[in-house]
Amino acid sequence: MEKKRKLDIQRAERPRKTPKSVPFLPQGSNDEVIDIEVTELLSKASISESNGHANGPENPSQDDASVQASTTKYTKPMELNQEVEFEIIQLSSTGDGLAYNSTRDHIFAIPFSVPGDRVLAKPFKWQGKFTACDYIKTIRPSPSREGVTPKCKYFTKCSGCQFQMMPYDSQLEHKRGIVQRAFKHFSGLKDEQVPEVLPTMGSPLQYGYRTKLSPHFSAPNEYGRQNSRSVVPDIGYNMKGRMRVMDIESCPIGTDILQEGLRIERKRVADNIQSYKRGATILLRESTQRKYHDADSTETSTSNQASPQGQLVHSNPIDMTLLSEDVHHDDNGTPSITYSYPTHTDTKTYTSDSGAQAKEYITTTTTPSNPNENLPPTTKTYHFSNTAGSFFQNNNSILGPFTSYMYEQCIPKSKSTNNGSQPSKSPIKYLLDAYSGSGLFTLTLSSHFKSSLGIDIDARSISAARLNAERNNVNNAGFVDADASALFADVPYPAAETVVVIDPPRKGCDKEFLKQLRRFGAGRVIYVSCNVHSQARDVGILVNGFHRDEEKRYSGDIAQPLDQQWEEEGLYKYEIESLRGFDFFPQTGHVEGVCVLNRVEKKMAEGSKA
């Protein structure tokens, strides 16, 4: 164990090498994000130490200082693996507290800390301009910690959560700042091109919200253990700052039924450890069976129209006031939890089979598309079934408010001209849903449109989406099993009357997809992302085009608009209408971003297709 620790320290002392080739665009990784924010913090220190005169060799501007900070050759500020006290001055977008050294020319990143803390930490990994540290303890807590007690006994050791020591409103405000900084550093846009970020929408549940957990364990002979398949390894999540699993018996951000399942699955691994040749990941996915009190069927409808499968979608308001909770174990020890409400009961079970079907219910409140119609909002509950191992949002408690917000963004807000008339603009009538999965957006937004089309590369998700369309009586939605880059190959909708919803993986959209989208010229784009940094990068391309000298592009560049290329190639550009974060993962540093964009109308060259 001690030998391995020494090897880790030796590796950590080696500064990171500059990559020989720069990727097409930054990916928004944690390493990139903290590198940018550390560089900015060092440049502020450099400016504060100048005598305050205008730009000059001895008094650099912030831009000059940033360049200097990014090109300086750094030396290790101190020996690693010794305990040191630090004063936290800033919270990074990665969730780490940042502190200066005594000479303010180096940064230390300390997890589980907030501005105003004085903490004891142990530097363990030198990375050039900053050093990663292990958190030891808080010596003098910040006033912002007052009244907050972490609910997990593994907090400050496990890598899963970063913010259990912060009040929830402070978490939401910090995540708003993450979105702001992402667009500042990764979009290449000027300040006037980026609107003020709206307040982060919070999660109704801050603990007990995750409907999917995936603890894992390593092979028994790793980390110095004896090579014996009879040894039960640690089962849980990685330690903070280490590629090593720590033993986790419970996870308070998981739902109650998953806590029951975690206990059972841990015992199952221990009882059958000899059957594992190597490590594995355990899947725990919640599934819900709902029964409404107003009918014998599991789902009912005010219109009483059944789907082809005989299932009905519920369009009555539901009451989520909890009346009772009953935990039950069958003869095999399999758990279930039944929650009773005034309008229905929900029975929760879990599955560890990635090929099994998991069920979810999402209640969306929508307003009429036509503002001239004085109609009340409509509340509708959608029933989704998807393969347990496929992607589906892991916080059901926020999905209702989230899809309601998405619904409101599909149609541009009406604007009056000076003479009081409405501007001449094609109404949005069609939906293209890229990366559609099992149909979350395609179906919950479908009542806005004449027709909706979802596309996803996962054939299992597309199969589930088609069944979900039948299950929810959605007759105006179709689904295609293909890569998102093929979305615009044969679009049946007029571009100006179409909204495109994008929800890509963390790496964002590829170059070809963005070029096709700009050539298609959808009237409106709603970009949803679990990585606001790659989202900012892609939005910058939709607004300003691809960058000049794109192979030399780096984070923080201001893009040069390519208006001539737009005209020559018939590409459209966009402007940002709104930006907002959504807290799908309370207690963690993750934030989901939603960016709404409108097509900028332009005069096409004579003879060009309008």
UniProtKB/TrEMBL annotation:
Q: Which SUPFAM superfamilies match?
A: Nucleic acid-binding proteins, S-adenosyl-L-methionine-dependent methyltransferases
Q: Which CDD domains match?
A: AdoMet_MTases
Residues making up the signal peptide according to the UniProt record = none
- In short, the EC number is 2.1.1.35
Q: Which InterPro entries match?
A: MeTrfase_TrmA_AS, MeTrfase_TrmA_CS, NA-bd_OB-fold, SAM-dependent_MTases_sf, tRNA_(uracil-5-)_MeTrfase, U5_MeTrfase_fam
Q: Which GO terms describe its biological process?
A: methylation; RNA modification; tRNA processing
Family membership: Belongs to the class I-like SAM-binding methyltransferase superfamily. RNA M5U methyltransferase family.
Q: What is this protein called?
A: tRNA(M5U54)methyltransferase
